[in-house]
Amino acid sequence: TVNQTAMGIDLLIASDSLTWIDGVTYYTSTITPTYTYVGGAANGCDSVVTLHLTVNQTPIGIDEQLACDSLTWIDGITYYASTNTPTYTYPAGAANGCDSIVTLHLTVNNTAYSIDDQIVCDNLTWIDGITYYASTNTPTYTYVGGAANGCDSIVTLHLTVNNTAYGIDELIACDSLTWIDGITYYISTNTPTYTYVGGAANGCDSIVTLHLTVNNTAYGIDEQIVCDSLTWLDGITYYASTNIPTYTYVGGAANGCDSIVTLHLIVNQSYIIEDTLTICENELPYTYGDTVFGIETTSMSVHYIHNSTALACDSITLLTIELVPSSYNTLDTIVLENDLPLWMNGVAYSTDTTFALTFAGANDAGCDSVVTTMISHLHGMEWFSLQRVRKVSYIPPQMVWIVL
After folding, report:
1. So what's the pLDDT on residue 178?
2. pLDDT tens for residues 337-373?
3. How far apart are CA 248 and CA 235, in angstroms?
4. What phi, psi does 131 have (nearest 5°)?
5. Residues 59 and 101 sit within 8 Å (Cβ to Cβ)
């Protein structure tokens, strides 16, 4: 009885290598190796096995990674620095059924950090779209992929907020004011503002608001009606009517502004009358119109007499005065004692006496004549020793002289 050796084929697929039943490790596909199981067949004969081996290669891959700051990889580990060593095996993960081995090639770049230092006036609307009104160091903004290495760029705002300076310019002006903005204002106002760019001590703008009080110059008219001329308060003498001259009292108005007076002048002309007046000395004081001449008046004096009226100019009288003195004479009268009393002009004289008699208009000029009479009486034979009798040079006819 001849039994056949049992022949068999061992079909195998291996990854990378296979250590077969013969103890040999095969790294490539082969169909030649055999192995004999002595008496291993069911009929007691040997069993010869031929290896039909297909060797597939395990795929080796590289996972190139570029990360910012860190990377948590497929192995569950977080890597914070660049590395080429970590591997990860996907069991039977290859298309040929073998494992798939991945090696991590990691480049770790850092996120870029920067500070945005800002000094602003009043407020800042930042890159995050938010308006900040106070100083702060906390806001951040991320530029995704904005760094040169492709990572994010994170900016932190360091903000200093200064305030605009505000001031009020209180002004009082007369009639108008041309302000720092170049505009001339003619009425009171609280609204105009002017900005000095960067004018505040903190570098911000300085905004000034005008509070303006405008007072008006006071205007007045000085109505004058004069004769011949007027020397006005401007020191000028005007000889004709005019409405033009003005005079300014600097700060003379009640509100502190100037007071401007306009002269409305009517000049009327005076006229001159020449007259000669003869006055007897005994007529002093003498009234001529509204003028009284006193005892100090001298002969041949010239006077200007102003005859004022309410509506017209003076009439000026050029008056030449001739002052005629009165006549003064002395009469000595001697009587005997037994002839007393002596009657003269209705008056009885009983003793020696002296008296003056005035005869109105009795001299050649028509002025008074004043005669001074001296009465003396004699006793007995004294008459015969009398050497002479003094007489006045002129005896008015109105007087009767009695000499015994």
Report:
1. 97
2. 566 676 666 677 666 666 555 555 556 556 766 666 6
3. 13
4. -95, 125
5. yes
Strand 271-280 with 315-324, pairing: parallel
Q: Which amino acid is at 149?
A: N
Q: Is 394 helix (H, G, I), strand (E, B) or coil?
A: coil
* Structure token digits, residue 259: 């007071």
Bigger pLDDT: 352 vs 231: 231
Q: What is the mean pLDDT of residues 158-173?
A: 96
CB atoms within 10 A of CB 52: 15
240 within 8 A of 267, measured Cβ to Cβ: yes
According to DSSP, residue 199 is labeled: -
3-state secondary structure of 383: helix
Structure tokens at 58: 């395990």
Whether 288 contacts 305, CB under 8 Å: yes
Whole-number Å distance between alpha carbons of 149 and 67: 10
Q: If you write DSSP's letter for every residue of 328-376 in order, what string do you get?
A: EEEEEEEEEGGGPSEEETTEEE-S-EEEEEEETT-STTS--EEEEEEEE
Q: Distance between CA 205 and CA 153 in Å, rounded?
A: 33
Question: 10 Å Cβ neighbour count for 35?
Answer: 17
Q: HSE on the CB side for 325, CA within 13 Å?
A: 6
pLDDT value of residue 276: 81
CA 246 to chain centre: 29
- Asked whether the beta carbons of 77 and 85 are under 8 A apart, the reply is no
- DSSP labels, 244-303: --EEEETT-STTSS-EEEEEEEEEEPPEEEEEEEEEEGGG-SEEETTEEE-TT--TTEEE
10 Å Cβ neighbour count for 5? 12
- Kindly state the greatest CA–CA separation across the chain: 257
- CB 206, CB 122: distance < 8 Å: no
The conformation of residue 91, written as its DSSP 8-state character, comes to: T
Cα-based distances in Å from 16 to 21, 55, 267: 17, 6, 141
Alpha-carbon gap, residue 165 to 155, rounded angstroms: 30
**Which of 224-228, 254-258, 397-401 is the least confident region?**
397-401
